[in-house]
UniProtKB/TrEMBL annotation:
Protein name in the entry: Member of major facilitator superfamily multidrug-resistance, DHA1 sub-family
Broad class of the protein's primary localization: membrane
Compartment annotation: Membrane
Limits of the Major facilitator superfamily (MFS) profile domain: 24-451
Parts of the chain that traverse the membrane: 20-43, 63-85, 97-115, 121-142, 154-177, 197-221, 242-263, 283-310, 322-340, 352-379, 423-444
Alphabetical UniProt keywords: Membrane, Transmembrane, Transmembrane helix, Transport
Species in which this protein is naturally found: Mycena belliarum
Annotated GO MF terms: transmembrane transporter activity
Keyword tRNA-binding: no
One cellular component (GO) term of this entry: membrane
Pfam families assigned to the protein according to its UniProt record, in alphabetical order: MFS_1
Signal peptide location: none
Length: 462
């Protein structure tokens, strides 16, 4: 390390912030947006799709099982391959992997829209996860396009993109599915194709988005990994083993990232379930439109907050303080569920007190979302070397994909059992997740307050 690298401080003790490469970041975020859109565009119509497939036999009680399987397949299959794609990107470069992933997403969405059997739906959904290793690669590129002076500003944009996709994806799926039925006076009602394939339109629109992202990546995105040409007769360096990233600081960072993702996905699954359940069963009896508007408002405010407020808060409070604060908000959010239920049951309807607590839950949700940006920074900093950044992010993303597939199923099951057995007065599921939150706060204890002396060895960069 040179003297200049060891002394990056300006005379006044303030590091000069490096300008962000906005064009490259825009393309990268455009590519990232493809994942939440493709994973969540099916949510508004997947239950109806399953009901119409022969496998359900017209039995509504079977719909939830098969729909849940279809929804989780994306993350399950992604967990099987994301580490491979991320590690491969360390050797062949980031661009080829991103282009392969976008091609896979485009192909899978077209296939899903044309599927008329449960088998073809499953194959299309698995294809999306198996060919898509982009999330880990995108985080690696984000780490390579930023430095310690602007990483908070750059990483803060990633949760914004996820929140945007979580809003836009279901909107596309809800507005464009069954167009001949929804819009009987439109062009779509006169085209037999849209009657035969009622879910093709939203899938094709998302496929077109992925194709646009592929084109932008191919033409404009610059490679961030220098791939050394193979010299004839030269002995190839051995490929790094996955064991090289299984070191304490990486495992601690990944564990904290996984826990906040697990709690977040569990919360996201509980929210619509709690909001729509009858008041007598511990819910709020909201209709679909109210639930959609509430969750969209949470996502919109959170996205704006991350974009404009995270960086100054990070600089003022420090990385670990922001992360621990974000984790602790789950205690408040889970505690508010039984309190809202109690208030609604006593009033017999959703009154002002319930709406006030719902707003408080939204505020806590916005604060919680900052934890993801902190987790990204910790994972990036924990990589043993620059050449293992992809493998490190791949390990993290594999863990995230696993908890994203497990979290909703577990929380929904616990909610059902709690309501059916009236465990702890209907509060068992919330107590359970509060205990998990306390455990997550304990796991965060070893995280360093500052990244100084924590960032992985970069000797192999030169």
């Amino acid at each position: 390390m040179s003297d200049n690298e060891r002394q990056p401080l300006l005379p006044d003790g303030v590091k000069k912030k490096t300008p962000l490469p906005w064009l490259q970041l825009f393309i990268l975020l455009w590519v990232q947006l493809a994942e939440p859109i493709t994973s969540q565009v099916i949510y508004p119509f997947v239950n109806k799709l399953v009901f119409e497939l022969p496998i359900s036999g017209g039995d509504p009680s079977k719909v939830g099982y098969y729909a849940g399987l279809i929804e989780s397949l994306f993350f399950v299959t992604e967990a099987c391959t994301v580490l491979y794609w991320s590690s491969l990107s360390d050797r062949v470069g980031r661009r080829p992997i991103l282009l392969t992933g976008l091609f896979g997403l485009t192909l899978s969405m077209v296939a899903f829209g044309l599927s008329r059997s449960f088998t073809s739906v499953v194959i299309a959904r698995c294809l999306a996860g198996l060919l898509n290793g982009n999330v880990g690669v995108i985080k690696s590129m984000m780490g390579e396009l930023t430095d310690e002076t602007n990483i908070a500003q750059g990483m803060a944009l990633m949760p914004v993109v996820w929140s945007t996709g979580a809003i836009v994806g279901p909107m596309i799926g809800g507005w464009l599915s069954s167009p001949a039925e929804q819009y009987p006076n439109s062009f779509f009602a006169h085209v037999q194709f849209f009657t035969d394939y009622p879910y093709a339109l939203p899938c094709f629109v998302v496929a077109a988005y992925c194709a646009t992202a592929w084109l932008l990546t191919f033409v404009f995105l610059k490679e961030t990994v220098i791939v050394k040409p193979v010299v004839p007769g030269a002995q190839r360096a051995p490929r790094p083993s996955i064991k090289t990233v299984l070191i304490p600081r990486v495992l601690i960072a990944v564990a904290n990232y996984s826990l906040i993702a697990f709690l977040d996905m569990s919360l996201r699954a509980l929210q619509p379930l709690f909001y729509t359940s009858p008041i007598a069963l511990g819910g709020l009896a909201f209709g679909p439109s109210v639930v959609g508007s509430t969750l969209a408002a949470f996502g919109l405010v959170s996205g704006l907050w991350q974009a404009f407020a995270f960086s100054p808060i990070y600089e003022r409070l420090g990385l670990k303080n922001v992360f621990v604060l974000s984790q602790s908000t789950f205690l408040g959010m889970f505690a508010l569920f039984p309190l809202m239920s109690l208030a609604a049951q006593r009033a017999g309807h959703v009154n002002a007190a319930v709406w006030t607590m719902l707003a408080a839950q939204g505020v806590l949700y916005v604060i919680m979302d900052m934890g993801f940006s902190c987790a990204f920074i910790y994972v990036r900093a924990s990589a043993p070397s620059k050449h293992l950044l992809g493998a490190t992010n791949g390990l993290a993303q594999t863990s995230i994909s696993v908890v994203r597939s497990v979290g909703p199923a577990l929380s929904n099951s616990l909610f059902a059992v709690t309501a059916e057995k009236n465990l702890l007065g209907g509060s068992f599921v919330y107590v359970f997740y509060s205990v998990i939150t306390a455990g997550a706060l304990y796991v965060a204890t070893p995280l360093p307050k500052s990244l100084e002396g924590y960032v992985g060895d970069r000797e192999d960069e030169e």
